[in-house]
Design goal:
about 190 residues; mainly alpha
Length: about 190
């Protein structure tokens, strides 16, 4: 179980980091979501409530494949002078699928911690989950406005949303890394 929780945490890191060699993403998001999917599947053998996040991890794993080549050439996400609705819609769907993944996974983790008697840790996980959901929802609401506002305003808003999103994801990473100290590996699912 410890390995599965740490694998989910490293999946979060792979999704956060974006290192490119030319147009190729060296640390692809698809690997991060595959780590999460694998982790959820393993944790589902201990507590069934984790499995509610699995469909979203699967969807995001497949949605992340085109992002491997997002920065280059004439592809779907080629940089252009004018913003396009296609990458905007894709980003919106991507962000929308991330919300239930994190909500369901961290709800299951908070319940698991609570059932294990780690009430303070459970409260911390719920707070971190809520922070992530609020930041992500705010970013999702801001997204359509990026087409119509001045580029400097879009860049400033995207920067603020990006920093808040990174902080929220790092807090979720920390919850996964410390969770094995608080949750029991025995099956006590009360779904």
């Amino acid at each position: 179980m410890k390995t599965a929780l740490h694998r989910f945490a490293w999946g979060i890191v792979l999704v956060l980091l974006d290192f490119r060699f030319g147009v190729f993403d060296i640390l692809p998001d698809v690997a991060g979501y595959a780590f999460m999917w694998s982790s959820i599947t393993r944790l589902g053998t201990v507590r069934e409530s984790y499995l509610g996040a699995r469909p979203y991890a699967a969807i995001l794993t497949f949605l992340a494949v085109p992002e491997l080549f997002a920065a280059g050439g004439d592809g779907l996400f080629a940089p252009s002078e004018k913003d396009s609705i296609v990458p905007l819609a894709f980003t919106g769907v991507y962000m929308l699928a991330t919300l239930p993944l994190m909500h369901r996974f961290f709800t299951a983790l908070a319940r698991h911690a609570s059932d294990s008697g780690a009430l303070e840790f459970a409260a911390s996980v719920r707070f971190r989950r809520s922070l992530f959901l609020v930041v992500s929802a705010a970013s999702l609401l801001f997204l359509p406005f990026t087409i119509n506002i001045e580029p400097s305003g879009a860049a400033a808003g995207s920067f603020v949303a990006g920093v808040a999103g990174i902080v929220a994801m790092l807090l979720l990473f920390g919850a996964c890394r410390s969770a094995p100290s608080y949750v029991s590996a025995e099956e006590r699912d009360v779904t």
